[in-house]
Amino acid sequence: MSVASTISLDLRQIPLEGELPVAETAEAVLTAAAEIGASDLFILSEQEGVQTAVRHMGINRQLRSYSTDFGRRLISHLKVQGGMDISDRVHPGEGRWVFEREDATPLDIRMNSIPTLFGEDLTCRILNRETGLRDLDHLGLLAHEYHSLISLLKSSSGLILISGPTGSGKTTTMYSCLRHLNDGRRKINTLEDPVEYVLPGARQSQVNLKQDVDFASLLVACLRQAPDIIMIGEIRDPETASTAVRAANSGHLVLATLHAPYAAATVQSMLALGVNPHFLATSLVGVISQRLMRRLCPHCRTPIDMSAAGAMFDDVRRWLADGEGRVMYSPGRCEHCLFTGYSSQMCLCEILVSNDRIQEMLSKDEPAHLIGKAAVEAGMIDFQRGALLRVARGETTTEEMFRVLPFDRAIA
């Protein structure tokens, strides 16, 4: 993979070809990926063999290479574990495997295969039940954002949208919200594709397209189950979008995700799906748009004197404590962060809270940039300012800010 770099991981954890049987090699690779907190394992068919790689904190990194024959057997073994058809290598496929580990929490492995130029590629999404379910105060939000989110979740009805690109942490935020709401006093129904984590007390249903059970049909049926709170895994089509808005207007609290680049564009995405502007305006409680940003390793970060940098942080000065914004940091290298310079990920958010002015703008279908401006004037910290705050506080770097943010958001 040309986009991957070599991770400073102890590769002794990952067997060389022939050291272990295929089954044990597969388990060793998955275990190593899980131990460093990788979100995905890739097994990629190349011209000269098969390459294994991981996505670690949003960055793709290569692991071991294997021969074509061994790599194909590795893919076939994993497909068998995931209940996939190993005889079909020309059609995309999906599978699931609960990987039971010794003395550790099981891993939920979601698999997807696709034919490529030199053979099959297999992607394994690694869902760690120990780390996947977090409380709201463990998302890494700014204090202002945390209080805004708590305020949204106090609503008894309405629509809360969580947006961002693939891999931006939407599912983690959604489940954190549901855990906060899951107090036993309200009936929660979730509609997912697939069910990512088991949430005790919630009624969880899964999309099954092979049986013509999609989000739209599940949502219609769910409304007859008398829920208080409905979670929709993803709004993908006009029917689901319109039904979600109607449910939010009829006394349910609806939480849903969809793909959109920033908070104000999220409401425009709903309108593009044909939702009536007036109904969206009256139902919308707020929008959480997010990215995942790497946090500098506290053990090896290197200070950079900012005394000559002038007004770089003037725009966010009012949110900084005394002493913050005088020193920036660059990534170092140490064993605590696997020599990457970064130790974890944090959530970078825009939280748009609907108000009378925004409702009026929505009902008139005004442009996204004007809605975003109104939200900032009402107190929303936009992506650029949120990222600058984290740079000023020594939590991340300007390089990470430009890597994560949409270009126009990073330079606004």
Summed up:
With 412 residues, the protein is of the alpha/beta class. It folds into two domains: 126 residues, Beta-Lactamase (2-Layer Sandwich); 278 residues, P-loop containing nucleotide triphosphate hydrolases (Rossmann fold, 3-Layer(aba) Sandwich).
Question: Can you characterise this structure?
Answer:
With 412 residues, this protein is of the alpha/beta class. It has 2 domains: 5-130, Beta-Lactamase, CATH 3.30.450.90; 133-410, Rossmann fold. It has 14 helices and 16 strands. Strands 1-4-3-2-7-6-5 form a 7-stranded mixed β-sheet. It has a 7-stranded mixed β-sheet with strand order 10-9-11-12-8-13-16, sandwiched between helices. The longest helix is centred in the first third of the chain and has 14 residues, at 22-35. The protein starts with a strand and ends with a helix.
